[in-house]
């Protein structure tokens, strides 16, 4: 019996979660969630729930509302009456007829997915998600598959700025987390850094 895949964490309704959540386990969300969720397994967003931020997972069943980005190494199933505003990066995508999708769907190359799976396999639960560089690596690998040459150069340049900023001073004036109330997502950090040049 594999405890990592057998356990399902349930976040019931009448609950509001704000922040970062990282787990090896599957998670069933019936509540409102604002932040970043990283699960090595399946995420289920129930019909009355709202998620704002980024989801990184192996599979996603979506019945509720999401405003943000989905990074999935397996299958995203957009079910009846769900709503998505943002971007979906996934190996497989299925949607029912009555979905409300305002998103760009990108299917990455197999080599990209295998690299992301290897990063996910090495996730350390003892490290805070906000300081775990695995998150940015996963997002970067998903986006490398779809960016133009110019955008890839910009991404690499932004990463150099990020690296030099963190090396030059510990208490940088760069944000250590993102204010999701402002509509920003984790994956937009790199764009914000480009504006500060």
Can you put this structure into words, describing what you see?
The protein has helices at residues 3-6, 110-121, 134-144, 149-168, 189-195; strands at 8-11, 16-23, 26-29, 32-39, 42-45, 50-57, 59-62, 65-78, 83-95, 100-106. The chain is an alpha/beta fold and 197 residues long. It has two domains: 3-106, no CATH class; 110-195, no CATH class. Strands 1, 2, 3, 4, 5, 6, 7, 8, 9 and 10 form a ten-stranded parallel beta sheet that branches. The longest helix has 20 residues, at 149-168. Residues 169-197 have low confidence and may be disordered.
Secondary-structure topology with pairs:
Layout: H1 3-6, E1 8-11, E2 16-23, E3 26-29, E4 32-39, E5 42-45, E6 50-57, E7 59-62, E8 65-78, E9 83-95, E10 100-106, H2 110-121, H3 134-144, H4 149-168, H5 189-195
Parallel strand pairs: 1-3, 2-4, 3-5, 4-6, 5-7, 6-8, 7-8, 8-9, 9-10
Features of the shown structure:
globular; 5 helices; 10 strands; disordered C terminus
Order of helices and strands: HEEEEEEEEEEHHHH
Could you tell me the strand content as a percent range? 35-45%
Structural class: alpha/beta
- Terminal residue distance: 51 Å
- Give the overall shape: globular
Low-confidence residue ranges: 169-197
Largest sheet at a glance? 10 strands, parallel
In round numbers, the mean pLDDT is 79
Assembly annotation: single chain
Please indicate the count of domains: 2
Give the fraction of residues assigned to helices.
25-40%
Beta strand count: 10
Number of helices: 5
